[in-house]
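Quick start: what a row looks like.
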Amino acid sequence: KPCPLEIWLLSNYISVFVSAFVIYAVNLALFTLIIIAMNVPFQWGIPFITLSFLVSLMIVFSYLMFLTSIMHPALAVAVVMFFQPDMFFRSLLWLKSWMSSAGSGAGKTIVSIVEKLNYALYMIVPEFNPLSHKTAQIETSLHARASDFLYILYSAGYCVVVSALFFLLTLFFLSRKRHI
């Protein structure tokens, strides 16, 4: 073992964050230069979206690191791609509407159990773009006020909490594996 597991895992987090930050910063700088060269007014929604993507990337990365510590990486990617919080939310709405229109019986009991399971999964799966319902207008119009950047701060706070949780869970499961 070249270093403790905690340091190795933390170095993964740091390297992904620094790499993504540099890539997004270069992208933003090039985009800004193009805007200046074309005499187009600068829209503050562009750095807003860039920071939002950086936060989302860190959430997805930490979730993916955790999943790859408990399952095969290909399966982990499939889980991240297919089992999104929106899917559980929409199916929860569908189940609730079905429950309100259905009568009584065994079918309603089964759907009630499925609804509770679905709700639990909805609460467990992390939101990749927190506060997206508040920032959707910014992402389409590219107009952002200074007060809108508070949403990025709130999302970054959520990212830190989620990343810390998945860091600890990943550390727990990796330390239990025999080959490490």
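That is the whole record. The first helix runs from residue 5 to 37. The chain has a mean pLDDT of 89.
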